[in-house]
Amino acid sequence: MPLLEMMGICKKFPGVTALDDVCLTLDSGEVLALLGENGAGKSTLVKILSGVYTMDKGQIKINGDIVDIRNVWDAMKLGIGIIHQELNLIPDLTVYENIFLGREKRDSVTKRIDKSYLKQESKKLLNRLGVDIDVERIVKTLSVAEQQMVEIAKVLSMDCRIIIMDEPTDALTTDEVQNLFKIIQALKCEGKGIILISHKIEEIMEIADRVEVLRDGKYIGTKVVAETSTDELIKMMVGRELKEKFPKVKVPVSDVVLEVRNLSVSGLLHDISFELRKGEVLGIAGLVGAGRTELGKTLFGVYRYSGEIFIQGKKLNLTSTSAAIEAGIVYLTEDRKEEGLFLDKSVSYNMTLTILKAFTRLLGKVDTRKETRTVSDYVQRLRIKTPSISQTVENLSGGNQQKVLVGKWLMTQPKIMILDEPTRGIDVGAKVEIYNLINELKENGIAIIMISSELPEILGISDRVLVMHEGKITGCLEDSEATQEKIMRYAISTGGLDGEGN
Amino acid sequence: MERKSVKRVLGVLVSLFLVAVLVVGCTGGTTPEEGQQEKKIGIVISTLDNPFFVTLRDGAQQKADELGYELIVLDSQNDSSKEYSNVQDVLQQGISLLLINPVDSDAVANAVKLANDANIPVITLDRGANGGEVVTHIASDNVAGGKMAGEYIVQQLGGKGKVVQLEGIPGASSARDRGKGFMEAIEGTEIDLVASQPADFDRTKGMTVMQNILQAQPEIDAIFAQNDEMALGAIQAIESAGRQGIMVVGFDAIDDALQAIKDGKMAATVAQQPDRIGSLGVEYADKVLKGEEVPTYIPVDLKLITKDNVDTLD
Amino acid sequence: MVKETKKRDWSVFLRGMQSVIGLLGLCIVLSILSPRFLKWGNILNVLTQTSLNAVMAIGMTFVILTGGIDLSVGSVLAFSGMVTAGMIHSGLNVWIAILIGLVIGTVLGLVNGLSVTKGNVPPFIATLAMMTMARGATLVYSGGRPKSNLGTAFGFLGQGKILSIPVPVIILFVVFIIAYNVLTQTATGRYIYATGSNEKAAKLSGIKTDYIKLLVYAVSGFTAALTGMIVTSMLDSASPNAGNGAELDAIAAVVLGGTSLSGGQGSVVGTIIGGLIIGVLNNGLNLLNVSSYYQQLIKGIVILVAVLIDRRKR
């Protein structure tokens, strides 16, 4: 008898059918991967299982018994634990307080929280995971990977039978991913059932036992990992074969567009110098926390800096983001929802916000007809899938949301685009579209800086790679000489010394 | 989607119905058919969350019932602009005369003019109006009351000592007048006013302000509070500080204060007769409507209540 | 695809109409319960009364759309009204006096904005402090006494009529038209929504969010001062206690109009409707002779029910 069975699950949201007759089975001691493009319904399915959403139709059985999951508490009581993509910890509390939040053990007489017991138990849980985190640290001072470990410890403390992980590796570096996999293996041996949501096929091939593929809210099929191939899974996922994962176009490079000399930001960046030429994609690699995003944001006028920045030979004084935009530098954020989109506003609103001045007529009135024309034009050129330009962006898939943001920045007619993790949280099919878009921009003479944590992407798309470590540039590689190993060596230590990690 | 919209509209309607039911429920019977026959008098009162004005209203209501008038009561919540719209509203209701207890004597002038324009006679209660035409003003004299309290303190202390004053809401006319009368009484004596601070006619503030004053002043012989609420707050502060021999005089003669006088915690209070102000208001309204001549000022007696005469009250 | 957009428009339309339906329903219920409700004179009363709250609520809408709040409007109203009255007393030209009052309100708003942006003080705290400061300043400047008898030229603002429409109503209309156009038609309007919807994203889109915030607090200060002018003119008196608690009525109007307190969503059309609902309710309950105690209870219920419906629809 399977540990978990979900049958005929249906769920509708206003305007979209998120799940249509989807099923799922999971055994004890098994890792089941849920694979699908963004918007395929993976997250909705597990949110139903964990009580965040209620299903419209369908049945859930645990150990053969029909269960009724109406809210998160029901799910918890049934031993279902979920680690959300956006971690759900309270940033200002300590590790042990977070692990036992809402389930604190109290002294039977005084009713005071038994802190020493909680600390001790937390330590035990973290030891079981093989990680060494001080349980009294405040959660916001931890790295993303460490926070994830705390989440896992929290789920373990609830003695869950079923553990769901929603895109757990997205914010992790390669080493951290390996560590996480070790933990998943250990949990598997303890007899837990694990559901892993991911769109990284390589990782699924490495860790999962079976893969279930969803597409457009429908169940497509389930494969045993050992008996399938990456190509087959991609085909199931996108409904077509992808010709090329990393389409690269070579454009003859010409003049230097951007020159950075001795750029420093106190506590974040140290003495950074490089050049960027028209028609090239400069990849920036490094571990999380290496200062890549900070470099991108500094060039966008977010931080105060010392040093010099030249654009086409002219020295810039980047005191604000609007100054950067005016100079022709734009920055596509790594965090679409928090820093990029106005989720409750329309496609049109999101795209034109930065260039409204171009549409204003007498008395500052916005010429909405001209605006509509421009937006429709970009929506078509970027192949953004949306029912209308007045659709709120909240309802678009991740890939289309990203395109909305790309369109927004293209409208400013930039000379330099800084793309921070441009394909994060985007499905395989849409990734290729973004890559093609990057190539198109390159051909149109826009210089591109691409920050990415995915090494294959860096290698596949960049013409040149800068590697950062602790706020410094530790290596610069032409694409002909760049390999994953070389990049990792620069990313871990300074210069060409052998890192311990390799 | 459309079904949802229908649901929303239904929700709105249901809630409106609820409000309607509430409204009808609350008004239940106050607009009877025969009301058309009765003459209506409007009374706009500065505030109804103070027992003094509630008593004033009760006095007026009683008299109105007795004389067969319908009394429309509106509450200005101590806000002059609210008072202005109340007058606008009450004039819509076909009243024959307006009784008004102003929030502020100056700011009420334009509201009185509204009634003048509508040819509705106006009688002011407790506080006067510095503008517009008023048939008569019925009030107890706050300046005289303040003076009465001051003179009592002077006499009890033998014309010498350290005195504290707790003031009402800064800017309120009753606070101004009572303070003025009190200052007149102690002027020229050897009474030393060591502190005078506002406590907004509020018992809690009366207590906290007094606590601070007690900290600052090692020697206090008497306190004049511009109303009883503050006086009672001050007594609490004095008791918890364990200080002895401080005489407290209040104003308004509310029930708690009378009890405090009986218990010997408070020395005296100045009694106004709010119910009398209210009933006189309706009585003179009746006279005005019957075409009788009335004097332009009708004083209502004030009375100093001490341990000696507290039991004779009621 | 075309079909779907049409359907959406319909539901969006209904959603926008919800508060209008509520208002109309309320009017129908009231006109059934009181024959006087629909009289022209009373309708003008309602509009005049509403204009006081609504002008201020429009400014408040700007602030709330950015995710802020302005608790100081009641006190700013009092201070600017008092200063203008003082200037008129000192013999200054009425229009210059009004201009000074308006500038003072705007400057106080700017100070709020500076505390919020440069000082990084949460809006609630910054404007709470301003609320207390401006009230204090009013009492200091006036010595706690009202300033009255401001002359007929000044009286025009609150009591005058143009083509038999009261001036305050015309002022409200003008303010509304300007605010509506700024918010829906201009780039600045979009920046205001953007700041409230996602401040980080707005900053990274090159929008000077600090400037936008300064602007909205200045607008709120300005509309508060403008209301101060109207109230002072209407009562022909600047009272140091004017506008006490007015901020809560303004916030209630904004919230009743469906504007989200977390910012980014809402409209001044909603605010006007919200203001009218409060105004109609005040007036109607007065006409129905509902006791002031019940009035507050009912108003509270209406606000709660309206917001609950609004919540449900999101």
CATH domain topology of the largest domain in chain A: Rossmann fold
* Straight-line N-to-C gap of chain C: 24 Å
Query: Structural class, from helix and strand content of chain A?
Result: alpha/beta
Strand order of the largest sheet of chain A: 6-7-8-3-9-10
Integer count of domains of chain A: 3
Give the helix level of chain A as a range of percent: 25-40%
Number of helices of chain A: 17
Strand order, sheet with most strands of chain C: 1-4
Quick synopsis:
The complex is a heterotrimer of chains A (502), B (314) and C (314). Chain B has helices spanning 2-27, 51-67, 80-91, 109-117, 142-156, 173-186, 203-216, 228-241, 255-262, 274-289; strands at residues 39-45, 69-75, 97-101, 122-125, 136-139, 160-167, 190-198, 222-225, 247-251, 268-271, 297-299, 303-306.
What does this structure look like?
- The complex is a heterotrimer of chains A (502), B (314) and C (314).
- The model of chain A is unreliable at 494-502 (pLDDT under 50).
- By secondary structure, chain A is of the alpha/beta class.
- Chain A has 17 helices and 20 strands.
- Helices cover 46% and strands 20% of the residues of chain B.
- Chain B has 314 residues and is α/β, with parallel strands linked by helices.
- Chain B has 10 helices and 12 strands.
- Chain B has helices at 2-27, 51-67, 80-91, 109-117, 142-156, 173-186, 203-216, 228-241, 255-262, 274-289; strands at residues 39-45, 69-75, 97-101, 122-125, 136-139, 160-167, 190-198, 222-225, 247-251, 268-271, 297-299, 303-306.
- Mean pLDDT of chain B is 85; it is low at 1-5 and 26-36.
- By secondary structure, chain C is an all-alpha fold.
- In chain C, a hairpin with a 2-residue loop joins strand 2 and strand 3.
- In chain C, helix 1 runs parallel beside helix 12 (268-287).
- The longest helix of chain C has 32 residues, at 2-33.
- The chains are: A alpha/beta (502), B alpha/beta (314), C mainly alpha (314).
- At the A-C interface, helix 10 and helix 11 of A face helix 1, helix 7, helix 8 and helix 9 of C.
Layout of SSEs?
The complex is a heterotrimer of chains A (502), B (314) and C (314).
Chain A: E1 4-13, E2 16-26, E3 31-35, H1 42-49, E4 57-62, E5 65-67, H2 72-77, E6 80-83, H3 95-99, H4 115-128, H5 144-157, E7 162-166, H6 174-189, E8 193-198, H7 201-207, E9 210-215, E10 218-224, H8 230-238, E11 256-265, E12 269-277, E13 281-286, H9 292-299, E14 306-311, E15 314-315, H10 321-327, E16 329-332, H11 336-340, H12 347-352, H13 368-381, H14 398-410, E17 416-420, H15 428-443, E18 447-451, H16 455-461, E19 464-469, E20 472-478, H17 484-492
Helix pairs in contact in A: 4-5
Chain B: H1 2-27, E1 39-45, H2 51-67, E2 69-75, H3 80-91, E3 97-101, H4 109-117, E4 122-125, E5 136-139, H5 142-156, E6 160-167, H6 173-186, E7 190-198, H7 203-216, E8 222-225, H8 228-241, E9 247-251, H9 255-262, E10 268-271, H10 274-289, E11 297-299, E12 303-306
Parallel strand pairs in B: 1-2, 1-3, 3-4, 4-5, 5-11, 6-7, 6-8, 8-9, 9-10
Antiparallel strand pairs in B: 10-12
Helix pairs in contact in B: 2-10, 3-4, 5-6, 7-8
Chain C: H1 2-33, H2 40-65, H3 73-89, H4 94-117, H5 123-142, E1 147-148, H6 152-159, E2 161-162, E3 165-166, H7 167-185, H8 187-197, H9 199-203, H10 209-235, E4 237-238, H11 246-256, H12 268-287, H13 292-313
Antiparallel strand pairs in C: 1-4, 2-3
Helix pairs in contact in C: 1-12, 2-7, 2-10, 2-11, 2-12, 3-4, 3-5, 3-10, 4-5, 4-10, 6-10, 7-8, 8-10, 11-12
